[in-house]
Amino acid sequence: MSIPLFETAFTRCTVTLILSCLWLRISGQPLFEATHPWSPLVLRALLGSLSLLSFVYCIQRIPFSQALVLGFTTPIFASIMAKIILHEKLKIADIVGLICSFFGMLFIFKMLYTRRLLKAEEASIISFMRNHHIYIALIGLFSSITSGISYCLIKAAAKASDQPVLTVFSFGILASPATGICSFAFEEFVLPSRYSLSLMLILGTLSFLAEVFLARGLQLEKVGKAVNVQFTEVALSQLWGICTSRMGWSFGQLAGCLLILISVTCTMYIGPDKDNE
């Protein structure tokens, strides 16, 4: 039996909480101190948890590819919110880079969708279109918007405390019990096998490292530039699948991957204006 999504998210958040706590303790950083910027940390934890729970809800009720497309609107919303909340200057190059990366991702998923659509996927899409699809799509957009605001709060808290791991720790404190409650309330608990548990622990460790690197990137760089790099996840996963012969390839997929990689590279290296003040 497969592991339910909320149970997987609970394991991931718990591992993130434990590792961030150990990191702070080993580095001599107090976990709770009056000098910490608690307002952005609390808001970051709240919005990050809401975003995670909403995204898991969408994955459970709509086709996975459509949920991912909704999830990858987060960089666009993050750039908009950075303009509003942090008053960051959003240059034309940043806007063009985000749009090119997003369209590259859409191009990849369109190729996969048209070439590898199974009957089960067709049935799930028909059910999706008939049953409150607008409602679920709005929840997906809510997840992206709250995640975008969360990125801005990560940047504000990381710069104020000079310790990006603190934002990861604050997220774990709230997200771990929240996903645990949802797991026991809405899903049937499944005892994982050794193999499944090891994969979940590896996923939690990698997720923790990704959270730390993201917080550090947001601390050093403009939000619009930092979040555009996230689109490389789509391109690299496709290239890895093609190189390991796990999936077929087409010119459209390669074109989408190339568009994302060129966009991200140009965003990073053309006109760099690092936000280090």
Automatic annotation (TrEMBL):
It is found in: Membrane. It comes from the Eukaryota. The chain crosses the membrane at residues 38-60, 67-86, 92-113, 134-158, 164-186, 198-218, 249-271. It is a multi-pass membrane protein. The keyword Transmembrane helix applies. Residues 3-109 form the EamA domain. Belongs to the drug/metabolite transporter (DMT) superfamily. Plant drug/metabolite exporter (P-DME) (TC 2.A.7.4) family. PANTHER family: ACYL-MALONYL CONDENSING ENZYME-RELATED, SOLUTE CARRIER FAMILY 35 MEMBER G1. This is EamA domain-containing protein. It comes from Gossypium raimondii (Peruvian cotton). The lineage of its organism: Eukaryota, Viridiplantae, Streptophyta, Embryophyta, Tracheophyta.
